[in-house]
Amino acid sequence: MELTISAISVVQYAIGPLNSKEEFWRQxxxxxxxxxxxxxxxxxxPEYLTGTLLALSPVLNHYEACQFIDSFxxxxxxxxxxxxxxxxxxxxxxxxITKEGDSFVNAAxxxxxxxxxxxxxxxxxxxxxxxxxxxxPGNGFSVxxxxxxxxxxxxxxxxxxxxxxxxxxxxxxxxxxxxxFTDEAHGYYRVRLCSQARAIExxxxxxxxxxxxxxxxxPQIDSGYCQAGIFAPCDxxxxxxxxxxxxxxxxxxIATGKIDMEMLKENRxxxxxxxxxxxxxxxxxxxxxxxxxxxx
Length: 296
Prior knowledge:
Largest sheet: 13 strands, mixed
InterPro entries: C-N_Hydrolase, C-N_Hydrolase_sf, UPF0012_CS
Structural class: alpha/beta
CATH architecture: 4-Layer Sandwich
Protein name: CN hydrolase domain-containing protein
Pfam families: CN_hydrolase
CATH superfamily: Carbon-nitrogen hydrolase
Family: Belongs to the carbon-nitrogen hydrolase superfamily. NIT1/NIT2 family.
Distance between the termini: 48 Å
Organism: Aneurinibacillus migulanus (Bacillus migulanus)
């Protein structure tokens, strides 16, 4: 794959009142236009993006909310396919609740300009998702080749598990896309700091997006807290803090940054440390079968 400099945009999408689904899609299109203006080749929308459509419904219980969001699945897929084809941009359309078998999944969809799309289900569900959303977890990870590099997807809580990013790095991922939804600062900083840790550990880029704003009358998605960003290893030749782009906290906006695959290659070959290479799995394996966590 040719190594190039490319722009990525991460979206801070504001939840709030909606008058129609057409208004929702206009808002999505406006963010995409901003990304086009910034020259982006890849755009990352947040987790539970289509949960915003609950603003068009009466208050629902959690199962009904899943059914309501799933009713937009065909429209969600065809609209993002059209957006990607028309703009020539690879788009992570956030995540969308859709039905698989007798249950629902929290699924990230990645759309390509040639009309293809792939689906990555969230593997690690939060206690709230298990209790409230009636979701089932995914059971694997994949990587996907794009025009700017090989990407993997870790949705929000997924990135808090180092093994997840390690699996993607072992499959050759250069970039991890992390759509997130956190409703207050504690959750945000868990995801943000883990995103930066995964970038350091695996010598990769991480692109983090999130929901912001308020829908206090919608119990499933009543508030969002985020400062989206694009992160690199905190090592030469990148900035010392590893931050390539950062949004303004809780503002409706996109943040755009440039990733340089040649710089990533240089980091992997001539950085100050090489955590991706210097791991000692033979040591960790001694403890893998004996170190357990028991739920109370």
